[in-house]
Amino acid sequence: MAEITSLKTLQGYAEGQVVELPPFGEGQPFVARICRPSMLVLAKSGKIPNSLLETANSLFVDGKPNTKKDLTALSSVYDLMEVFCEACFLEPTYEEIKEAGVQLTDDQLMFIFNYTQTGVRALDSFRQQSQNSGYMLSQQTV
Hints:
alpha+beta
């Protein structure tokens, strides 16, 4: 029988993971402490605005936005990615990143979205890409 997870261990999980995201450019690595928030909790708590719930639902269920019905889908996806980044980044926070005038790349945004949905499994496809593009992704559980 499995051992019960201690509260101290659970509290440690809330501290997130140190993960190397796709770089900003060659020789420009980006390592941050991030966590894996729940899309359902974000929606229930009102952090995903009602105007983005349809986009969130299509991403969550289908894995892609419904661009046939919504010509503003790309803009909605970006808005949704910002919600995920706000919830995901622990150190530095997403607010600190924006205040520093830094704009995340599309690869980084997609990485964050994939991470929120699949956790460290999201790193696997980026690790494979890293062999071809020359950067290495790592993850550490704290």
